[in-house]
C-alpha cells in the first residue's frame, strides 16, 4: 500500500503541467515529503531518488526561482550526506540558473530566516571540492555577465525579461553595539549610553536606505527581498542552537512596538566560532575576532561577486580591523565602512589613519544614525537619496519616542541621548536649508516639572514658570531672598498644612449612651521633633543674621549675565533670551503682580532640565555658638570672666609654635594677626595653611591630669605587652606590632584562652611596601626569643613553614614545661642536579639548589624578570618539575644548533636537561643546553631523502632561506635539487643500527666500543676524550 501511494505521488509530479507543479512545490512540505518517501533497496524501488531526480533534473526547466529555492531547502533538511547523488542535484539546480535568476535564487535562500543559508550549503554541506569549485566558477561567470550589463546600462537581459534596476549592494552589519545596545554587558559589548537590548534609533531605516540605494524605486517595495546580512562574533556551538536565538530576534524586529515597519527584510546570519571568542575572553585579543569575520566575508563574497558590500560595525572589538582586511583583499567589491563610536576612536583596535589613507580607506565614525545617513548622502557618488536621509531622521525621532520610560536608567541619560540626536538632526537641517528643503523634525522633550512647582537649581530655589520642549529649557523664577526669610516661609507653610489636615479630620462620634463614669482618653499633640531639627537654633541664628539682612536685599547678577548683555538699569518685562548659550541668561523682574514680593529678591532664568532637582527645604549654615563660654582651670592662655563686668572678656593670646585644634584637624600656630583677629595655622597631617578666626582655634594645653597620667605610665612595658619588641623568628627578623592587652581586673574565667601577638617580618616586603604579619602564641614567641642566635636548630622550613603556620589552627597551650625532642628528619634524594634545565607550570626554569630537609627544589624562572633585573624564584616539588626539551625537537631527529652545526638529537639527560647531539659530518658529540638548539630540521646533512624526482642525499642546508640542497641519485651525479622541507620526506628515522654516521649505535660505538678495525682504517676519527674536549669549548661558548 505504501509503495503504491509513493508511486502515485511520483506519477503526479511527472504528469502535471508547469503551473500545477510550481503550486504543488510551494504549498507542500517538500522536505517532509522527501523524508517520508523511501528508497526501498530490497524491492529495487528507489522512489525518493526518483522523485528528487524529477524535480532537480528532469522537470527543473519549468520550475520557478522560488520552487528551486524550496527544492534546495528540502535537500538541506534531509542532509546531503543521506544520498550519494545529493551534491549532484544541488550542482545541477545552481548551474542551470543564470544571471538575475541566480542572484534571486541565492538571495531567497538566505532570506528564509533559518540556519540553512547559501553559505552553509556551498561551504559546509557540500563535501566534494570539485563540486564546490564548479558551483563557484559558475557564479563568477554569471556575475561577470551581470556586471557588464550594469556598466553598459543594458535594459534587457533576454528577449522576454528585463534586467533588474537596483543598487546591487549587500549591507553587512554587526549585531551588538551596532544594531542594539549591549548596555555594557561583557563580552557582548561596552556601550552604556543606551539601555540594554534597545535598538538604536534610526538603525533599521539606515539599513533599508543603504539597501535601496539611489537606483530603482524611491521607496521600498512590499514584496521585494532585501540584501541584509549580519556578521556576528557570537560563536556557532551546536547545529542551529545559537543561530535560532538571533533569528528569533530578527523576526521580532520585523514589526516595531508602535506598529510601524521594522526590518525591511529577513536577514541572514554569519556566526563566529569558539576559538576566536575564547581568545577574546581569556586574553582580550581582538585579532582572532577580526580574522573570523574576514574569513566569513571571503566566503560570502565568493557567493555574491556581482554585488558591492557595505559594512556597518562598531569600534568596540575588532570590526574596524576586519573592514580594513576586506578592503585589502576585495578593493572592488568593498564599498564603504561605517563605524559606530562606542569608545574613544584612538583606542580602536587597528587604529592607524596614516595607513588607512595610503590604502584609500575612509571609514565614517559616527555616534548617531542620522549622522551616518548624512555622510552617505554627501559621498561621491552618494549611497542614499536625500529623501532617504529624511526618512532616516523621521524614523529616528519615532524610534526614540517608542523607548519605554522604565528602560532608561535616569532622566539624565535620556536627556543626554535626546540632545545628542538633536545635535545631529540640527546638522541635517543645516544641510537641508542649503538645498532649500524643508527641515526634519526635532525630538521634543517631555515636561517633568509642572508649572508653579518648587524645585532646586544650581542657582537656588526656584518656581517653574514655563517650559520649552524644543530646547528642554525651563523658565524659572529664582528666589534670592535671605535664607532666614525662606526658612520662615517654609515653616509657616508646613504649619498651615498641618492645621488644614487637622480641620479635615472629623471629630470622633460619642456613644449614644454615655455616663459621667465613663472616662475617655485624650491625645496630647506636641510639637514635632523634625521641626526643631530643620530649624536648628533658629532664633539664635535669625538674631545673628538680622544685621546682614539689609545687605542681602541688594542682589548683583552682572557676573551671571553675558558681558555683552549686562543690564545698566532695572527694567520691567522680559528680554529675549539666547537659549543657544550653555549658561543660563538671567533677567531681573521688576513688575511682580504680587506686591508682597520684593522686586530685587527674585530673578528669571532659563535652566536645562538636567540641572533641576526635586525641591528640598532650605537649610541654614551652622554658625559657631559663641554664647557658651569655655571654662578651664588649667588653660594657660585663657582668661576667666570679670565678675564686676560680665560683658568684658579678654581675648585669648596665640603664640607661634603652640599646638591647637581646629575644625579641619590639629595644627601648629604660625602667626597671629591680632588687629584682624586672624590666626595662621599650619595643618598637621596634610600640606595646608589655614587662615582662621580666633573662635575657630582652640589651644591644646597639656594640663595637670595629662601630666599625672604621663608620670603613672612612665614605666616601660615589657614583653609581651610592649610594642616594638624585636624577635628573631624562623622566617627572619621581626618586631611586635600587636602586643597583648594590659591585664585587667576582669577575667573571662577560662584558663584555656589562647591569646596571640602579631609580629611584622622586617626582611619581607609586600607589593605595597608593607611587611607581612604572622600571629603566634606568647609561648611560641618566648621560645623564639630564647633561641636567638641558635641558627639551624629551631629555624627550618622556609616559605612553606609560613603558610603552614598561617593555615594551621591555633592549638591550646599546655601550661607545663615542654621537653625538647628532636624530630627525625626525613631523607630526600635529589633527582634533578643543580643547574639542570627544567620545565614548570610557570615556564622554563633552572634548578638553583635542592633542600634535602623537605625535598623541595629552588628553581629560577628564566622568563620571569623582575623590576630589579633579577629573576623570580619558585619552590617546587619534584612532581611539579620535568626536564626541559628544546621546542619542537624530538629524540632521533635532526636539529640545528646555535653554532651553525647540524646533527641528530640522540638523547636528553633528564637529571640535567643536557641535550646530546651527534654531529656525523664532524665526528663530534655535543652536550648542549636546550636554548642552544635553534630549531628542528627535516633532514640532516648526509641523510637520504625521498623527493618527487627520486631518491637523494642532503648535501647542504642554507640557513638564511631555509632551503635544502639535495644531490639526486640516478641522475648521473650532476643533478642538484633545491627544496623546502614540505616537498620531500626523510628516509631514515634516526635510530638505525647500522655502522654509518648517525644513530644511537654510532654514538655508543664512538664513545665506548671503538674497534681496532675502525682505528686502523680511519685515522681521522676523533676519540671520546678529544670530542669531550671540543665539546667543553663549545659548551663554554654556548653558555
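Sequence proposed for the structure above (1039 residues):
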Amino acid at each position: 500500500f505504501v509503495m503504491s501511494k509513493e508511486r502515485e505521488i511520483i506519477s503526479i509530479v511527472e504528469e502535471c503541467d508547469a503551473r500545477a507543479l510550481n503550486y504543488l512545490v510551494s504549498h507542500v512540505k517538500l522536505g517532509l515529503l522527501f523524508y517520508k518517501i523511501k528508497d526501498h533497496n530490497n524491492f529495487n524501488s528507489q522512489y525518493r531518488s526518483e522523485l528528487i531526480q524529477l524535480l532537480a533534473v528532469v522537470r527543473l526547466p519549468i520550475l520557478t526561482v522560488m520552487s528551486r529555492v524550496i527544492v534546495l531547502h528540502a535537500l538541506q533538511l534531509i542532509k546531503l550526506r543521506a544520498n550519494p547523488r545529493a551534491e549532484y542535484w544541488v550542482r545541477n539546480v545552481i548551474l542551470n540558473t543564470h544571471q538575475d535568476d541566480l542572484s534571486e535564487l541565492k538571495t531567497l535562500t538566505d532570506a528564509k530566516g533559518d540556519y540553512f543559508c547559501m553559505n552553509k550549503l556551498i561551504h559546509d554541506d557540500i563535501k566534494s571540492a570539485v563540486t564546490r569549485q564548479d558551483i563557484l566558477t559558475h557564479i563568477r561567470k554569471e556575475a561577470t555577465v551581470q556586471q557588464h550589463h550594469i556598466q553598459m546600462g543594458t535594459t534587457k537581459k533576454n528577449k522576454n525579461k528585463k534586467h533588474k534596476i537596483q543598487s546591487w549592494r549587500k549591507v553587512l552589519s554587526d549585531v551588538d553595539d551596532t544594531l542594539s545596545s549591549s548596555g555594557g554587558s561583557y563580552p557582548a559589548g561596552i556601550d552604556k549610553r543606551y539601555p540594554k537590548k534597545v535598538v538604536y534609533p534610526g538603525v533599521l531605516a539606515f539599513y533599508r536606505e543603504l539597501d535601496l540605494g539611489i537606483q530603482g524605486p524611491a521607496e521600498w517595495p512590499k514584496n521585494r527581498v532585501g540584501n541584509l546580512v549580519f556578521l556576528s562574533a557570537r560563536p556557532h556551538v551546536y547545529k542551529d542552537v545559537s543561530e535560532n536565538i538571533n533569528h528569533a530576534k530578527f523576526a521580532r524586529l520585523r514589526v516595531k512596538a508602535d506598529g510601524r515597519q521594522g526590518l525591511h527584510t529577513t536577514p541572514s546570519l554569519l556566526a563566529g566560532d569558539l576559538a576566536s571568542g575564547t581568545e577574546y575572553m581569556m586574553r582580550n585579543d581582538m585579532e582572532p575576532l577580526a580574522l573570523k569575520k574576514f574569513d566569513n566575508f571571503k566566503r560570502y563574497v565568493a557567493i555574491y561577486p556581482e554585488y558591492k558590500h557595505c559594512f556597518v560595525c562598531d569600534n568596540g572589538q575588532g570590526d574596524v580591523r576586519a573592514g580594513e582586511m576586506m578592503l585589502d583583499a576585495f578593493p572592488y567589491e568593498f564599498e564603504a565602512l561605517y563605524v559606530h563610536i562606542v569608545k574613544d576612536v584612538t583606542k580602536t583596535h587597528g587604529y592607524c589613519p596614516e595607513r588607512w589613507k595610503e590604502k584609500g580607506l575612509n571609514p565614517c565614525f559616527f555616534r548617531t544614525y542620522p549622522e551616518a545617513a548624512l555622510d552617505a548622502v554627501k559621498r561621491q557618488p552618494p549611497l542614499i537619496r536625500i529623501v532617504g536621509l529624511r526618512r532616516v531622521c523621521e524614523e529616528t525621532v519615532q524610534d526614540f519616542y517608542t523607548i519605554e520610560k522604565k528602560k532608561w536608567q535616569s532622566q539624565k541619560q535620556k536627556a543626554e541621548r535626546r540632545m545628542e540626536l538633536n545635535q545631529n538632526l540640527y546638522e541635517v537641517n543645516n544641510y537641508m536649508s542649503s538645498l532649500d528643503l524643508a527641515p526634519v523634525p526635532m525630538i521634543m522633550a517631555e515636561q517633568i516639572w509642572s508649572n508653579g512647582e518648587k524645585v532646586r537649581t544650581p542657582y537656588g530655589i526656584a518656581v517653574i514658570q514655563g517650559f520649552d520642549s524644543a530646547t528642554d529649557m525651563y523658565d524659572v523664577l529664582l528666589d534670592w531672598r535671605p535664607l532666614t526669610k525662606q526658612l520662615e516661609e517654609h515653616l509657616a507653610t508646613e504649619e498651615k498644612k498641618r492645621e488644614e489636615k487637622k480641620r479635615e479630620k472629623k471629630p470622633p462620634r460619642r456613644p449614644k449612651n454615655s455616663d459621667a463614669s465613663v472616662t475617655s482618653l485624650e491625645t496630647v499633640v506636641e510639637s514635632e521633633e523634625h521641626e526643631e531639627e530643620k530649624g536648628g537654633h533658629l532664633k539664635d541664628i535669625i538674631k545673628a543674621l538680622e544685621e546682614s539682612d539689609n545687605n542681602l536685599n541688594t542682589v548683583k547678577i552682572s557676573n551671571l549675565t553675558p558681558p555683552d548683555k549686562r543690564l545698566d538699569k532695572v527694567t520691567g518685562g522680559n528680554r529675549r533670551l539666547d537659549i543657544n548659550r550653555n549658561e543660563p541668561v538671567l533677567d531681573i523682574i521688576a513688575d511682580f503682580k504680587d506686591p508682597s514680593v520684593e522686586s530685587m529678591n527674585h530673578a528669571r532664568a532659563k535652566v536645562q532640565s538636567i540641572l533641576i532637582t526635586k525641591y528640598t527645604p532650605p537649610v541654614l549654615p551652622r554658625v559657631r555658638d559663641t554664647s557658651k563660654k569655655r571654662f578651664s582651670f588649667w588653660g594657660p592662655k585663657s582668661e576667666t570672666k570679670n565678675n564686676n563686668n560680665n560683658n568684658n572678656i579678654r581675648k585669648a593670646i596665640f603664640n607661634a609654635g603652640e599646638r591647637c585644634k581646629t575644625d579641619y584637624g590639629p595644627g601648629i600656630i604660625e602667626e597671629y594677626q591680632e588687629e584682624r583677629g586672624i590666626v595662621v595655622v599650619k595643618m598637621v597631617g596634610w600640606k595646608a595653611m589655614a587662615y582662621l578666626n580666633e573662635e575657630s582655634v582652640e589651644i591644646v594645653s597639656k594640663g595637670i591630669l595629662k601630666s599625672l597620667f604621663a608620670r603613672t605610665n612612665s614605666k616601660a612595658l615589657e614583653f609581651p605587652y610592649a610594642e616594638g619588641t624585636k624577635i628573631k623568628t624562623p622566617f627572619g627578623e621581626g618586631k611586635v606590632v600587636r602586643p597583648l592587652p594590659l591585664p585587667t581586673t576582669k577575667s573571662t574565667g577560662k584558663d584555656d584562652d589562647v591569646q596571640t601577638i602579631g609580629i611584622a617580618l622586617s626582611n619581607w616586603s609586600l607589593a605595597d611596601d608593607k611587611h607581612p604579619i604572622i600571629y603566634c602564641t606568647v609561648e611560641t614567641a618566648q621560645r623564639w626569643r630564647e633561641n636567638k642566635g641558635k641558627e639551624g636548630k629551631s629555624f627550618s622550613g622556609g616559605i612553606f613553614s609560613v603558610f603552614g603556620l598561617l593555615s594551621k589552627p591555633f592549638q591550646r597551650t599546655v601550661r607545663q614545661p615542654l621537653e625538647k625532642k628532636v624530630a627525625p628528619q626525613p631523607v630526600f634524594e635529589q633527582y634533578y642536579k643543580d643547574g639542570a634545565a627544567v620545565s614548570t607550570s610557570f615556564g622554563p626554569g633552572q634548578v638553583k639548589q635542592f633542600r634535602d630537609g623537605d625535598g623541595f627544589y629552588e628553581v629560577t624562572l628564566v622568563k620571569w624578570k623582575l623590576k630589579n633585573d633579577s629573576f623570580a624564584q619558585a619552590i617546587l616539588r619534584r612532581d611539579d618539575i620535568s626536564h626541559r626539551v628544546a621546542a619542537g625537537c624530538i629524540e632521533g631527529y635532526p636539529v640545528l644548533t646555535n653554532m651553525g652545526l647540524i646533527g641528530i638529537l640522540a638523547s636528553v639527560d633528564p637529571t640535567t636537561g643536557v641535550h646530546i647531539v651527534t654531529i656525523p659530518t664532524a665526528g663530534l658529540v655535543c652536550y648542549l643546553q636546550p636554548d642552544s638548539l635553534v630549531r628542528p630540521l627535516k633532514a640532516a646533512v648526509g641523510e637520504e631523502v625521498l623527493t618527487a624526482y627520486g631518491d637523494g642525499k642532503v648535501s647542504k642546508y642554507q640557513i638564511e632561506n631555509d632551503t635544502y640542497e639535495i644531490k639526486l641519485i640516478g641522475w648521473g651525479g650532476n643533478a642538484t635539487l633545491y627544496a623546502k622541507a614540505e616537498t620531500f620526506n626523510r628516509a631514515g628515522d634516526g635510530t638505525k643500527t647500522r655502522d654509518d654516521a648517525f644513530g644511537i649505535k654510532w654514538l655508543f660505538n664512538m664513545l665506548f666500543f671503538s674497534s681496532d678495525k675502525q682505528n686502523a682504517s680511519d685515522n681521522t676519527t676523533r676519540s671520546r676524550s678529544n670530542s669531550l674536549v671540543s665539546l667543553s669549548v663549545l659548551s663554554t661558548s654556548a653558555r
